[in-house]
Specification:
Number of helices: 2
CATH class: Alpha Beta
Number of domains: 1
Radius of gyration: 16 Å
Strand content: 35-45%
Structural class: alpha+beta
Mean pLDDT: 88
Largest sheet: 4 strands, antiparallel
CATH topology: Alpha-Beta Plaits
Strand order of the largest sheet: 2-5-1-6
Order of helices and strands: EHEEEEHE
Helix content: 10-25%
CATH architecture: 2-Layer Sandwich
Low-confidence stretches: none
Number of strands: 6
Length: 107
């Protein structure tokens, strides 16, 4: 068992229907694929009232396993092209991956 890998897990949380754009940007910068999950936001300041009903914003959650040597480029590209520096546009973060099993890389 390997205690350190050459990978990072990248997470991107954006408004619904924006996740595929994050995946495309990541692939343009070397990512091989991603998992896209639908979710709901829970930030109180983002919720809106519509016809006396609380409406929670729908989100796309993108999860990618990428090599350390391309992770920064992918994060920077997504951050810049998706305007994540603007309020309520989304968030991107990464976590180190300690172990990977079942990953078959194709050359």
């Amino acid at each position: 068992m390997q205690n350190e890998s050459n990978y990072q897990a990248l997470y991107v949380i954006v408004d619904r229907h924006e996740g595929q754009k994050a995946v495309a940007i990541a692939q343009e910068n070397g990512a091989k694929g991603a998992t896209l999950i639908h979710g709901r936001g829970s930030a109180k300041e983002v919720k809106s009232i519509l016809l006396n009903m609380n409406v929670e914003p729908e989100k796309d959650i993108v999860i990618m396993l990428v090599k350390n040597d391309i992770a920064e480029n992918i994060k920077d590209a997504i951050y810049d092209k998706m305007n994540l520096d603007k309020e309520n546009k989304g968030i991107i973060y990464s976590l180190p991956v300690m172990e990977v099993r079942g990953l078959v890389e194709q050359s």
